[in-house]
Design goal:
The complex is a heterodimer of chains A (about 120) and B (about 375).
Chain A: H1 9-27, H2 75-79
Chain B: H1 2-28, E1 35-40, E2 44-49, E3 54-60, E4 66-71, E5 77-82, E6 87-92, E7 97-103, E8 109-118, E9 124-134, E10 139-141, E11 145-150, E12 156-159, E13 172-175, E14 181-185, E15 188-193, E16 199-204, E17 230-238, E18 245-253, E19 258-267, E20 274-275, E21 281-288, E22 291-298, E23 303-309, E24 317-320, E25 326-330, E26 335-340, E27 346-351, E28 356-364
Antiparallel strand pairs in B: 1-2, 1-28, 2-3, 4-5, 5-6, 6-7, 8-9, 9-10, 9-11, 11-12, 13-14, 14-15, 15-16, 17-18, 18-19, 20-21, 21-22, 22-23, 24-25, 25-26, 26-27
Chain lengths: ~120, ~375
């Protein structure tokens, strides 16, 4: 992981969390999640998705020609299994009924529900 | 000059008549008298009459959005797991309704059904499951489990030993038609008897088909088009005289544990393969960014058929119609595009009410 460099605030928080956890483990301190208040820099749930897979902003070749066109064709399949939890609602945990009011993303895109985290 | 103009006009007129005639033929071409089934994000399974290409019925599932669909051995029921992989549902096709639905999850434990196979007499089902238990401060992920469940009581009857004592997150399984044997496909085909689920036989796929060739790599799936135990598909094999892998078609006889027929077609290419009902042809798609092709395989004459580039899109799947004259291209969206199999000409598009899920398209022949 040393070759990766955070380029935004969220990535920076992730890196600081990992370093803090490593320090805590080395010092024997264990912080359980149920203890309150949480440390101010630990409020981003980690490990929601265990997949790093190109295919949202870029395709496997680094371009856009391989992405579904229009993107609405693939929208609901991307929502399955918490595959793209940052880009589309998470189907397994927080938004299982996202497609209830609109079942065809390309045809009825105006009816797609907005989900706010 | 006037004569020349007249000749040109006549030639154009004849050409137009020819085009119109072809278009008329395409418009009249139908895929057969079967029935198509496909799941959608509206929580329904759509029933499509192949002759009219109309959605004639909808099956409202009870456990959410259809994620995986499989036909029963007697073709009277559909087995479905939903997109959360927690629910298992049995649907009566004729009645268009759910006859049973259950889940294995508890209040703090989510058990996902990763693979399943149902006894041909529907007395029990085999599930490969994995559980996640929410504790006060963490989730615990359990080990995969392989177990037999009674379909009438929904209770676990027994756990089943893993092939080679190796737990796996999912299994590709098939029952024999009489339910006496269970085939588990992996690096080898492991065969269990179904009284005590002990291993009775296995087929070592590491043995080469012919001397000088490396072993074939292939997998099995239940097929509507072939007699049980026979499986025709594309295989790749390393060639002793050429670089890279060669692609070929093989017909495997699972009952006799042998490769009945095998022939090579050329350099291996990433292409799908779907056999027609009469087994004489197969069709597939090459899907590369910027390059989408139809491929046909003349199985009767053991050769590669026509190939044609077309304006495709990512994530397509293909199935031939029951009479083999049409090709259905579906997946990622609410459309089923219909092409003529002989010419790969796009004929029309069937639009569904909802985007199709990953259940795939079941093309069931009549009768």
């Amino acid at each position: 992981m040393k070759h990766l460099k955070p380029v935004n605030q969220k990535a920076d928080r992730v890196e600081r969390h990992i370093e803090a956890a490593a320090e805590a483990a080395a010092s024997g301190e264990v912080v359980a999640l149920q203890q309150a208040p949480l440390r101010p820099d630990v409020h981003v749930p980690l490990g929601c998705s265990f997949v790093f897979f190109p295919g949202w902003e870029v395709d496997v070749e680094g371009g856009t020609a391989g992405l579904c066109s229009p993107v609405e064709r693939d929208l609901f399949d991307c929502h399955l299994g918490c595959f793209w939890p940052a880009q589309v609602p998470d189907q397994l945990n927080h938004a299982p009924d996202w497609t209830a009011t609109c079942a065809s993303a390309q045809k009825d895109w105006r009816k797609i529900d907005l989900i706010f985290p | 000059m006037a004569l020349l103009i007249r000749i040109v006009c006549l030639a154009v007129a004849f050409a137009l008549v020819g085009v119109l005639a072809e278009a008329q033929d395409g418009a009249e071409l139908r895929g057969g008298n079967g029935t198509l089934y496909i799941g959608g994000y509206a929580g329904k399974i759509y029933v499509i009459d192949e002759a009219t290409e109309q959605v004639v019925d909808e099956i409202q599932v009870t456990s959410g959005i259809p994620g995986n669909l499989m036909l029963s051995a007697d073709r009277k029921h559909l087995y479905m797991s939903d997109v959360t992989a927690e629910f298992f549902e049995i649907i009566d096709i004729a009645g268009r309704s759910t006859i049973d639905s259950f889940r294995l999850s508890g209040r703090y434990e989510r058990t996902r059904i990763e693979s399943y196979a149902v006894d041909p007499e529907e007395r029990y089902a085999l599930f490969v499951t994995q559980s996640r238990t929410k504790l006060i401060d963490r989730f615990e992920i359990g080990e995969p489990e392989f177990a037999q469940y009674d379909l009438s009581t929904h209770q676990q009857i027994r756990t089943i030993p893993w092939p080679d004592e190796e737990a796996r997150p999912r299994l590709n399984m098939l029952f024999s038609p009489d339910g006496s044997l269970l085939y588990i496909f992996g690096g080898e085909v492991v065969i269990y008897e179904t009284d005590g689920f002990t291993e009775t036989d296995r087929w070592d796929l590491s043995e080469p088909v012919e001397s000088g060739l490396e072993p074939l790599r292939f997998g099995f799936s239940g097929s509507l088009t072939e007699e049980f135990g026979f499986y025709t598909s594309l295989f790749t094999v390393a060639s002793p005289v050429r670089d890279g892998r060669q692609m070929g078609v093989a017909r495997v006889n699972l009952n006799a544990k042998e490769v009945e027929d095998f022939y090579t077609l050329g350099p291996a290419t990433g292409v799908s393969f779907s056999v027609t009902a009469d087994g004489t042809m197969a069709y597939g798609l090459v899907q590369e960014i910027g390059n989408y092709e139809f491929w046909s395989f003349d199985l009767a004459n053991r050769r590669l058929g026509d190939r044609q580039r077309f304006n495709g899109r990512p994530r397509m799947s293909i199935k031939p119609s029951t009479n083999g004259q049409l090709l259905y291209v579906y997946g990622a969206g609410q459309t089923i595009d219909i092409y003529e199999a002989d010419t790969f000409q796009h004929l029309r598009t069937l639009e569904l009410e909802a985007d199709a899920t990953m259940t795939g398209l079941i093309v069931m022949p009549p009768g």
